[in-house]
Design brief:
Number of strands: 12
Radius of gyration: 31 Å
Number of helices: 13
Distance between the termini: 25 Å
Mean pLDDT: 84
Strand content: 15-25%
Number of domains: 2
Order of helices and strands: HHEEHEEEEEEEHHHEEHEHHHHHH
Low-confidence stretches: 223-229
Strand order of the largest sheet: 3-4-9-6-8-7
């Protein structure tokens, strides 16, 4: 019967091959959707790992700095450094925005996460593929290669231009945006300071307020104006622990005495994976379910039409004493063969187009194995309609 099923496939090889190609494209999309989800999880884990932190100190009652907005004063880091078990602590800012590459209005715009770091402390790129780390306090940048930037390129962030002095890799946000690292002071200015027109308007309102022009309080107006043009906020403090210290043991007194929120690596991963990308995961799951139903419908239709085209031959087989189990096995073999062809096509196309996706697509071997088993199961279930039709054929039709 294996030979009989093979001969039947060869007889209609054109339809069978085209169906396998169409099914393969659907399977390729399915594998890619699973890879996109895996890539999102990997991006979140890479963000946590590449930060070099064991603890994240953020604004109280927030889940920052990645899932929610967080703003704390930059002098918090000094008190954190003095806590037991803390080896290093550093301020950091995160700002996702469009930056301009090159000068002039025709410069290319790239969406990046601008990260403000202190050189030599947690938060800076863990490794470089070219160039050097930041050494100056202003106007230097280290970029992820996904930005398309090269050493020596100029990139404009808000008011200022920065020279790219180093390149790194797989430094991305939880959303997959490549990172651009600049000095902390520049990043604070880019994120928290107001534009010139707003500053002028605020100064005008302040100088016209009688409360700030008291004769008996000299310098009050100047102090207020100085605060309006300075920034002393960051999004988080990244903390590295001394060897042998448990993260929660260090985090608890910081929460209690500094009136901030502190997250460990496990808690931050839960926020990013279980909460931040949960909606995307459900959406991808719905797409996978829809693609599975569509694939099953295609296989069922093709196997059904192929079975209808050979009802007389099936009647002849029954007339000469062929068992129903053997006939059902032939149809099942055709369905599984169609699934195998489709899976091979899908695996190849998913591998080929994965690097073209704007987001990171991570194709895991276990997903491929699960996809193969799911494909064979779907094809087996889809063949049941054709098997039922074949088993109802009357042997008398062979001589009718």
């Amino acid at each position: 019967m294996i030979s009989l099923a093979g001969r039947d496939i060869l007889h209609g090889w054109g339809k069978f091959a085209l169906t396998g190609l169409g099914l393969g494209l659907l399977i390729g999309v399915t594998l890619s959707m699973a890879g996109i989800y895996r890539g999102m999880v990997n991006d979140a884990q890479a963000l946590i790992t590449n930060s070099g932190a064991n603890l994240w100190v953020v604004q109280k009652d927030t889940q920052g700095p990645y899932a929610e907005a967080s703003s704390i004063k930059d002098d918090v880091v000094r008190s954190v450094r003095g806590m037991p078990g803390v080896a290093q602590a550093a301020n950091v800012t995160y700002l996702t925005q469009q930056v301009q590459v090159g000068d002039g209005k025709d410069g290319l715009e790239v969406r990046v996460m601008v990260v403000g770091v202190e050189p030599g402390l947690p938060g800076e790129p863990a490794y470089l593929v070219a160039g050097r780390q930041l050494t100056r306090s202003h106007y230097e940048a280290v970029a992820d290669i996904k930005t398309g930037l090269k050493l020596g390129d100029e990139v404009r962030v808000r008011r200022h231009s920065y020279a790219v002095v180093g390149l790194t890799q797989r430094m991305v946000s939880s959303g997959g945006d490549p990172m651009l690292f600049i000095p902390l002071k520049d990043a604070q200015e880019a994120q928290f300071l107001k534009d010139n027109d707003t500053i002028i308007n605020d100064r005008t309102r302040t100088t016209s307020n009688p409360a700030f022009n008291r004769p008996g309080v000299p310098g009050l107006l100047d102090a207020v104006l100085s605060l309006q043009t300075s920034s002393h906020s960051v999004n988080a403090v990244l903390v590295q622990l001394q060897p042998g210290w448990e993260p929660e043991r260090v985090a608890e007194p910081i929460r209690r005495w500094k009136h901030v929120q502190v997250f460990t690596q496990a808690q931050m991963e839960e926020i990013l994976v279980a909460k931040l990308i949960a909606t995307s995961a459900r959406q991808i799951g719905m797409f996978l379910a829809i693609l599975a139903v569509v694939s099953a419908a295609i296989v069922a239709f093709i196997i059904y039409t192929m079975t209808l085209g050979k009802l007389r031959e099936i009647a002849v087989l029954k007339l000469i004493g062929t068992r129903n189990l053997t006939i059902a096995g032939m149809i099942l073999q055709q369905a599984l063969g169609l699934g195998l062809i489709g899976f091979m096509v899908g695996k190849v196309v998913a591998t080929l187009w994965a690097p073209i996706f704007p987001k990171f697509v991570l194709l895991m071997p276990q997903d491929a194995v699960f996809g193969l088993l799911a494909t064979l199961l779907i094809c087996a279930l889809a063949s049941t309609l054709a098997i039922r039709v074949a088993l109802k054929v009357d042997p008398a039709e062979a001589i009718g």
